[in-house]
Amino acid sequence: MTALAACQQQSGDGVFVPIEVPPLRFALSEHFPARAQPGDMALGDTRLLVTNSLEDTVSLFDLATMGTPSFTEVARIPVGLQPVELEGPHHAAIDPAGEFYYLAISNNVTGAGSGPHGAHGTGTADGYVLKYRTRDNELEAFVRVDRSPGDLVVSGDGRTLYVTHFDLLRVTEAVSGMRPAEEIDARLLIIDTQTMTRKPGIVLCPAPHGLRLSPDEKALYVACYSDELAIVDLTPSLPVVTRVKVAPNAGSGGNPIHEPYAVTVSPTSGDVWISSLRSGNVQLYDAAAKAIVPARNVFVGGAPVFGSFTADGRLLYMPTQQLDVIAVIRAADSEVLKTIALRPHGCLNVHEVRLVDSDRRALVVCEGNHRDPGTLLVLDLRPDGTAALLNKATVGIFPDYVGVVRRTR
Length: 409
Hints:
Oligomer: single chain
Shape: globular
Number of strands: 33
Helix content: under 10%
Largest sheet: 5 strands, antiparallel
Number of helices: 3
Structural class: mainly beta
Strand content: over 45%
């Protein structure tokens, strides 16, 4: 069929007559005008972004309404590459200029997978990192990464993204003999955010997860399932990896005793505090001495996860699952000054705490029961270490990250 025939219709006597079609630009402007959506950001806007890993969405909130009765979800944005199946967006990183946000697609959701990729519950599919524009929440670009991306962080200039891979299946394969034992380590991938292309991968450690940059961005610290902290020296053209055990009684990749999962870096000393899920300990790595300090270990019980420091480096707010509390730790002597109970506020399975508003308020992400919607709490932090609930908002299923987006470009 010719293009002309495609624009004709048949009259009652069987004769084709042309249909007048307006120019495409005119048709689009009249029938499909551009409409701003609630989640779209103009220059100067500030949003809170929450990833909902079991429904493939992100929740957006207007930071200006925090602490007021009007604090509610502004928009819930669908994300991912395959709308017919769950892909598991796991954590995010936000461009410092607020122009983009990056999501790790884990492709590892228990019970999901009737779509074109097949079953992902076993975590055998590679993951992706997606780049979204904040101005309209549209997908800008994406890049394929290794299996089970765990955490990601972006550099201060916004040009480099670091991605870990929490590949527990690789650990199982290496321990069981399904792959060579020396291949137990997963990689760190470094991505150029301008082109969304990968640089050569760096072999890191077994199932690396939480990662943070040092204050000067010369080093990257990564929590490794193998009871280790990986320190990546970023100053050489080819980064160098050093691994240290987090405790004298540390286990191995196949049999961890502590199971490090997240790290929090002091903004002043650069010291690294390591959250260990299995042992309930928060271990200290002295950045200046380049050593773990066992005497400064803090036992918080439960399963410590993603914490946050005050800007002066004096206090560490460490959320702890199982107990669902926040331990307020004084960094100078590793003493727990207070514990803030979260269950009275309806928080189940706390995942992350992020301090905002000059450390006067805390954003608290609560996973919930992984079947029903999770919650985002806003706490008013008082000088005596206690806290009061300011806001409680419903988000998606299994939220696992909250970040602040300030669009300046």
